[in-house]
């Protein structure tokens, strides 16, 4: 029994950076795999003070006493050699944030496995979770992919689906997918090591690509339909956030709901009836009911509490994107 257990523990390097990658690394450690190094992005400035902040993956790796590497690129030959000297059987990647050159892909005999939070080939690229919400997808999932030199184009080892809930944001859905991906990888990795899995090439005709989301993308365009704006609010939570302007200050829309009806000037804040949020904004199609907002420099508030302190908000005209 002990020999069987040893045979199915993989010597690997883990590459990951944000919260999405943390449950995946935790599961690899829980399963007893030999994680010889953790690669993560260098510290980045964050917050108002622009302090250098460790990635969530680095915090976990340091806590567990794992070897940490933070190169700015894996393309230099010396970085490839340093990685190869660790003699990994496999590399596991989850939202690392740097492209892997072919020289790195060629190092591990079991290849480089990527835990990608979409049902490939749909939503390749850097923002698959937000893209699924923006597109109005009812189902998403995770894919375990054998990496090649393309952007999320490698053959797929396994996939698992997950329904998208109306209340899901990119933040909440990302963590649900992380747990799903951790469990799926736990099943896939030993089977891949034993040669029990075949890869399935992706159907290029069905491929779609997500894009990097710019900070400015969160500004609300009230001429869009209410359901589209509702998806934007959810997709851009927690980053970059959805916002409009009121009295020269940024007003974040934290929670909202699309409602039928409308009429009136697009961008006008209107009172809503019983059983609905007390205020909404007229859009190009329907009304976006406001549930939670945050005025610049203030704390988040339920819309009813916000209105008690800002009575002139009702009836005001919100601007179009600058």
Which shape, going by the Cα principal axes?
A: elongated
**What distance lies between the first and last C-alpha atoms, to the nearest angstrom?**
66 Å
Number of strands: 15
Using only C-alpha atoms, the radius of gyration works out to: 23 Å
Name the CATH class of the largest domain: Alpha Beta
Q: What summary fits the major beta sheet? A: 7 strands, mixed
Secondary-structure element series? HEHEEEHEHEHEHEEHHEEEEEEH
- In CATH, the architecture of the largest domain is 3-Layer(aba) Sandwich
Q: Largest sheet, order of strands side by side?
A: 5-2-1-6-7-8-9
CATH topology value of the largest domain: Rossmann fold
CATH homologous superfamily assignment of the largest domain: Formyl transferase, N-terminal domain
Structural class: alpha/beta
Number of domains: 2
Q: Mean of the pLDDT scores?
A: 95
Q: Beta fraction of the residues?
A: 15-25%
The stretches of 5 or more residues where confidence is low (pLDDT under 50) are 1-6
How much helicity do the residues have?
25-40%
Q: Overview of this structure, please?
A:
This protein has 322 residues and is an alpha/beta fold. The protein has two domains: 2-206, 3-Layer(aba) Sandwich (Rossmann fold), CATH 3.40.50.170; 215-313, Formyl transferase, C-terminal domain (Methionyl-tRNA Fmet Formyltransferase, Chain A, domain 2), CATH 3.10.25.10. The chain is built from nine helices and 15 strands. Mean pLDDT is 95; it is low at 1-6.
């Amino acid at each position: 029994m002990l020999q069987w257990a040893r045979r199915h523990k993989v010597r690997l390097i883990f590459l990951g950076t944000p919260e999405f990658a943390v449950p995946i690394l935790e599961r690899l450690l829980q399963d007893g795999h030999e994680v010889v190094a953790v690669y993560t992005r260098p510290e980045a400035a964050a917050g108002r003070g622009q302090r250098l902040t460790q990635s969530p993956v680095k915090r976990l790796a340091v806590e567990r006493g794992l070897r940490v590497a933070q190169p700015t690129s894996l393309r230099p030959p010396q970085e490839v050699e340093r990685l190869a000297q660790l003699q990994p059987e496999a590399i596991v990647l989850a939202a690392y944030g740097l492209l892997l050159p072919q020289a790195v892909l060629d190092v591990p005999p079991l290849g480089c496995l990527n835990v990608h939070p979409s049902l490939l080939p749909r939503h390749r690229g850097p923002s698959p979770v937000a893209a699924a919400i923006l597109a109005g997808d009812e189902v998403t999932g995770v894919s375990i992919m054998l990496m090649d030199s393309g952007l999320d184009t490698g053959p797929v080892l396994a996939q698992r689906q997950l329904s998208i809930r109306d209340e899901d944001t990119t933040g909440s859905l990302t963590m649900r997918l992380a747990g799903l991906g951790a469990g799926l990888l736990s099943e896939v990795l030993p089977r891949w090591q034993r040669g029990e899995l075949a890869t399935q090439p992706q159907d290029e005709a069905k491929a779609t690509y997500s894009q990097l989301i710019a900070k400015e993308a969160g500004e609300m365009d009230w001429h869009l339909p209410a359901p589209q704006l509702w998806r934007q609010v959810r997709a851009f939570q927690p980053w970059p956030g959805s916002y409009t302007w009121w009295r020269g200050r940024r007003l974040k829309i934290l929670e909202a709901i699309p409602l039928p009806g409308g009429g009136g000037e697009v961008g006008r804040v209107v009172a809503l009836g019983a059983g609905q949020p007390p205020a909404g904004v007229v859009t190009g199609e329907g009304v976006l009911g406001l549930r939670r907002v945050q005025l610049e420099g203030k704390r988040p508030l339920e819309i009813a509490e916000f209105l008690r302190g800002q009575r002139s908000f009702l009836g005001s005209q919100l601007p179009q994107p600058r």
